[in-house]
Specification:
Shape: elongated
Distance between the termini: 114 Å
Largest sheet: 26 strands, mixed
Number of helices: 3
Radius of gyration: 28 Å
Length: 375
């Protein structure tokens, strides 16, 4: 026996063992095998190994079919730069109120829910997106995301991160109460929720294609926060309250009982606003607060339960303006049921009618006789 050769082989074995224990295993992609099984299942119907470490190891998880049930031994976390992608199937939590966290101390996380897939929070009491100031993402791309009554935190108290809840395609998102610190981008599908609290001056809620429904009464866009509606719709059971943030409506439809403006101006360049004029002619505003039709605005403001006296008052006292200027002669109004629709007279028409001397202080364009003019 060659002693020198034996020693060399022993050294190689010891080095290999030391190397294996000194360096972590490489990241892997795990695909769920399609079974209706616990998250910890490692059979071919489950993760076929693993289960994936979505917190630190750089693993990624893919679910194409089946039901994956997480029973908490702690919070369910996707972090460390890792991603869970759902192309089908169902993920749910049962048996405890542990949090679900997308983004944590180890790094950002991403959850993608594609068409045909459903992520249901089940027994979880809260989802935190972007904890520890990590820029994280939930992208509901045609799939279903159901909080099952739990609180949703979009961002975690930081004004410097950009964690985002994004809807595209035929997304179906059903939430309870939302604390919004970072961003919601509703670019398609349906979003329904109970209440939304703009938590910081970095909070941003944009609707560009989604149908959004809020069941709690009022939506308040506070100091520094941003709301924009470009297409799609937002339906409130109460007031849209602008209290020092930035609000713009360039398309789509806003349905609310009232616009309540405190230290704020709402820019209106297109789309439709539907209000109930039972109180304050549909718009309550402090001094210097108003709904601002911008130049060339194609927006249409409908206020129900509004009579001609209320219409004259609304356009004459500065609550509705064109480019910040109170000028009732720049608006046309038409009777619609028990209320009025108000819009800006197009500029070419304005010039023509001015030349003919045909513009009164308010231009009434009566619709068909089936619509009753409310005096």
């Amino acid at each position: 026996m060659n002693t020198k050769t034996s020693l060399s082989r022993m050294a190689l074995v010891l080095f290999s063992a030391l190397y294996a224990t000194s360096f972590p295993s490489q990241a892997a992609d795990y695909t769920w095998g399609g079974g209706d099984l616990p998250y910890t299942d490692t059979s071919t119907s489950g993760w076929n190994g693993g289960p994936p470490d979505l917190y630190t190891a750089g693993d990624n998880a893919i679910i194409n079919s089946g039901t994956v049930t997480y029973t908490p031994g702690g919070d369910f976390e996707i972090a460390g730069g890792n991603t869970m992608t759902m192309n089908g199937g169902l993920f749910t939590q049962t048996g405890g109120g542990a949090y679900i966290k997308i983004g944590e101390q180890s790094g950002a996380g991403t959850l993608i829910i594609n068409s045909g897939a459903e992520f249901n929070m089940g027994s979880s009491s809260r989802l935190v997106l972007g904890d520890w100031n990590k820029n994280s993402l939930i992208h509901v791309n045609g799939g279903t995301f159901d909080s099952d009554g739990a609180l949703i935190e979009v961002g975690k108290g930081s004004t410097t991160t950009e964690s985002t809840l994004r809807l595209t395609g035929n997304a179906n998102v059903i939430l309870s109460n939302i604390t919004l610190t970072n961003k919601i981008e509703a670019n398609g599908g349906n979003l329904s929720y109970n209440s939304l609290n703009f938590n910081t001056s970095n909070a941003s809620f944009s609707i560009n294609g989604s149908t959004v429904t809020q069941s709690a009464a009022n939506l308040t866009v506070g100091t520094g926060a941003t709301f924009s509606l470009a297409s799609g719709s937002l339906s409130l059971t109460g007031q849209y309250q602008a209290t020092g943030g930035s609000s713009s409506i360039s398309g789509g439809t806003l349905n609310a009982t009232q616009l309540s403006l405190t230290g704020d101006v709402v820019d209106f360049s297109g789309g439709i606003i539907n209000l109930d004029g039972t109180s304050s002619e549909g718009i309550s505003a402090g001094a210097g607060d108003y709904l601002n039709f911008t130049s060339g605005s194609l927006g249409s403001l409908f206020i129900d339960n509004l009579d001609v006296t209320g219409l004259n008052t609304l356009l004459g006292d500065g609550r509705v303006r064109l480019n910040g200027v109170t000028n009732a002669s720049q608006f046309s109004s038409s009777v619609q049921g028990d209320g009025y629709t108000i819009s800006v007279i197009p500029e070419p028409s304005t010039l023509m009618l001015l030349g003919l001397g045909l513009i009164p202080a308010i231009s009434f364009c009566r619709r068909r006789t089936s619509l009753r003019h409310k005096a």
